[in-house]
Design brief:
This protein has 244 residues and is an alpha+beta fold. It has five helices and 16 strands. Strand 7 and strand 8 form a beta hairpin. It starts with a helix and ends with a helix. The relative contact order is 0.04. The N terminus is likely disordered.
Length: 244
């Protein structure tokens, strides 16, 4: 009986020694047991990592985008972070202002360098551009030199020094005054302007008539103007005036 107990004791010792070097196969991965305080599941989670899912194809390089940190969405498409860059400086554009024009993408600085500058304020024209007299303007910067009214969509003209003027200011400065009605001789509804010069004075076509009977003068025989004592007279009233 004593011999049997001893042999059982030896078997137990051998079994304990065997347990120290044994390995357990879990899920196809060998995990060492023994003195480690971590469970086999903890170690398995660190060794066995699931492959990251593809987010889709990059619109630029046409390769798979693996991992959210490596991709971004812009302009309705997916890109690798390192593929979505400025066309000029090649800096990544993620979380930065960018501009897309003519199929190309730029950072803010390089985009502004592609823009024209306003001839008045000398700032970049980012939106609508107004071109006039061989120059470019912000629409709100294109103004009459005299009254400062905005001329966007408004008729304008130039003086002899190439100053931009609205039609009203131009007429005030340069239009002739009718000697009959004392109003400016200006265009109506954009029509061409005519004036008549008589007795070294200027007249509207409609004001060029006899001052007595209002008969309009013409080039027809006997229908012309007969000035007398600084007055515009028809032939009949001219004869009366002379006879007096």
């Amino acid at each position: 009986m004593a011999d049997l107990e001893k042999s059982m004791e030896n078997l137990q010792v051998q079994d304990d020694e065997h347990s120290i070097t044994s390995s357990t196969i879990t899920g196809g991965t060998i995990v060492q047991d023994g003195s480690s305080n971590r469970s086999s599941q903890d170690v398995e989670d660190q060794i066995v990592q699931k492959p990251k899912k593809s987010l889709g194809l990059c619109a630029k390089c046409k390769e798979n985008i693996i991992g959210h940190e490596n991709g971004c969405k812009a302009l309705g498409a997916l890109y690798h972070v390192n593929c979505f860059v400025c066309q000029k400086c090649r800096d990544p554009l993620v979380k930065k202002p960018f501009y897309h024009t003519d199929g190309l993408t730029y950072c803010e600085k390089d985009y502004l360098d592609t823009l024209e500058k306003c001839d008045v304020c000398e700032e970049h024209i980012k939106e609508r551009i107004l071109r006039a007299v061989d120059k470019q303007y912000h629409p709100e910067c294109f103004k009459c030199t005299d009254c400062s009214n905005c001329l966007d969509g408004v008729p304008f003209t130039l003086d002899s020094n190439n100053n931009v003027l609205c039609v009203q200011c131009y007429n005030k400065k340069f239009a002739y005054t009718c000697a009959a009605c004392n109003n400016l001789i200006v265009s109506e509804d954009g029509a061409e302007t005519y004036r008549i010069i008589a007795m070294d004075k200027d007249f509207h076509v409609s004001c060029y008539k006899c001052e007595v009977c209002d008969v309009k003068f013409s080039n027809d025989e006997g229908q012309g103007c007969y000035p007398h004592n600084e007055r515009l007279l028809c032939h009949a009233h001219y004869k009366e005036a002379v006879a007096q």
